[in-house]
Design goal:
alpha+beta, 7-stranded antiparallel β-sheet, 14% helix
């Protein structure tokens, strides 16, 4: 099968998301300028640089009660900071609850019944149940082609690792068991790993 996206795919569901998998999930906490909090997951997410460490995530839709994209992007533009969490398998249901389309004044952290603490380097909440968390300072928001496609870049200013996920000084993903997004409504969990040496090692 071949198709050009501009002409449609002719399938029951769009296969595009199923072709770029598995995708890590950025579970992002933000605060509005008034101090209200938001929690939402984004699966267009990745690290983009080591030194200084930097991440990006993209949003592809807009809420009618926000000027720029969704609550997360509006809050980041207002405050300049955000915290990205790894979603462990045990947090799948809480993550799903936080993905709902709620009114602007809703507190998804409370709705998902999650504990929160203050971040160390930025003014945002952190979820201590998450295997890892990246405190980030906004560097830029870029608009992509399309009606509501925005990419947010941030520099990582602080990193939290849950102690039980550290084994011999290495962050063990098989203990963290991170959730990843597949296509459609499907997810997977990282449960095993293998190593490869580069040819010049």
């Amino acid at each position: 099968m071949f198709y050009e996206p501009k002409n449609g795919h002719g399938l029951p569901h769009n296969p595009f998301n199923a072709l770029i998998v598995p995708r890590p999930i950025a579970w992002i906490t933000t605060r509005d300028a008034d101090g209200s909090e938001n929690l939402a997951p984004y699966s267009f997410f990745n690290g983009v640089a080591y030194d200084p460490p930097q991440v990006m995530f993209a949003t592809t839709s807009r809420k009618s009660d926000r000027a720029l994209g969704k609550d997360t992007i509006d809050n980041i533009q207002a405050t300049g900071v955000f915290c990205v969490h790894m979603v462990g398998e045990d947090l799948a249901d809480a993550m799903n609850i936080s993905s709902g389309s709620y009114p602007r004044d809703s507190d998804e952290i409370a709705l998902a019944k999650l504990e929160r603490v203050d971040c160390t380097t930025i003014a945002a909440s952190r979820l201590p149940a998450a295997p890892a968390a990246l405190e980030c300072k906004l560097t830029q928001i870029t608009r992509l082609p399309g009606a509501e496609n925005l990419v947010c870049f941030g520099e990582v200013t602080g990193i939290h690792l849950r102690d039980d996920c550290l084994v011999g000084g290495i962050f063990d993903v098989t203990r963290a068991r991170p959730l990843a997004r597949l296509g459609y409504r499907d997810y997977t969990v990282v449960t095993d790993k293998f190593s490869l040496k580069r040819p010049d090692e």
